[in-house]
Recover the amino acids of this structure.
């Protein structure tokens, strides 16, 4: 790359870091990339670090030593996430979203890249301090959320299927009981998809009793993998028995009246006072 003026270099370095979250980047990488001294690069990184933290964009960690470098950790302030989620709650309370059976229409919201990015960044912030190897979800509605979260954590995504797919090779399948319908269903995961002993972050779009999530937890047991965390976009509190209790939710559906079309959605347990 040609030698840049400092102002241009700061812009380019910032973009380089934003697109490589949770990645350790040696100072020599920047020094060679911009044909600049390490001392100059260190000064630039100090400026970027200050802006990131002051503007609530994340943290820039510096690791000293020969094998050291810098690592960008995307984070969003809980106050900013709360404001974002409260706006989503207001949208979800629109009467026309009520579907037969007390379900909510969310496809339009889940189809907005900006919304998905904010949800993914919030989950990435909530689970930033945990050692994780992969993000897992079940097809189909949880897939966009899983990818959005993984993009901010620099992790691969594993998708659990309702039926095994011949193009993915041999798979492990289990039966699980749906928490809401009490029906026995099947989910499967290709053997090559997940390494034995992996630490997994489960992401799902909606949780009632948690039967699907518990099914994924049981499936992970077949791979000798461990659950590093569970994040759900919306949970419902209208359940008699919770199968999963250790999770983080961003929103909570507290009431749906199919007759009057009244819906009540509030921020989830992530925003509860600590």
């Amino acid at each position: 790359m040609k030698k840049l003026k400092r102002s241009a270099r700061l812009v380019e370095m910032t973009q380089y870091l934003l697109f490589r979250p949770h990645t350790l980047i040696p100072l020599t990488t920047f020094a060679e990339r911009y044909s600049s001294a390490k001392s100059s690069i260190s000064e630039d990184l100090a400026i970027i670090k200050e802006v990131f933290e002051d503007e609530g964009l994340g943290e820039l960690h510096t690791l000293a030593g020969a094998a050291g470098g810098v690592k960008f950790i995307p984070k969003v302030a809980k106050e900013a996430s709360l404001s974002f989620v409260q706006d989503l709650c207001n949208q979800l309370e629109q009467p026309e979203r009520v579907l037969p059976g007390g379900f909510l229409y969310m496809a339009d919201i889940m189809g907005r890249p900006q919304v998905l990015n904010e949800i993914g960044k919030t989950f990435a912030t909530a689970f930033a301090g945990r050692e994780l190897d992969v993000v897992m979800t079940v097809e189909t509605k949880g897939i966009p959320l899983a990818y959005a979260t993984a993009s901010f954590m620099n992790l691969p995504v594993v998708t659990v299927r309702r039926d095994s797919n011949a193009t993915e090779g041999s798979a492990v399948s289990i039966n699980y009981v749906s928490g809401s319908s009490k029906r026995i269903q099947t989910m499967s995961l290709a053997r090559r998809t997940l390494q034995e002993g992996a630490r997994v972050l489960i992401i799902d779009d909606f949780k009632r009793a948690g039967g699907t999530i518990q099914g994924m937890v049981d499936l992970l047991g077949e791979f000798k993998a461990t659950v590093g965390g569970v994040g759900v976009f919306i949970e419902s509190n209208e359940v008699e028995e919770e199968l999963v209790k250790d999770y983080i939710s961003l929103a909570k559906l507290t009431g749906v009246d199919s007759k009057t079309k009244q819906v009540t959605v509030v921020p989830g347990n992530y925003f509860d006072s600590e």
Notes: Residues 38-54 form the longest helix (17 residues).
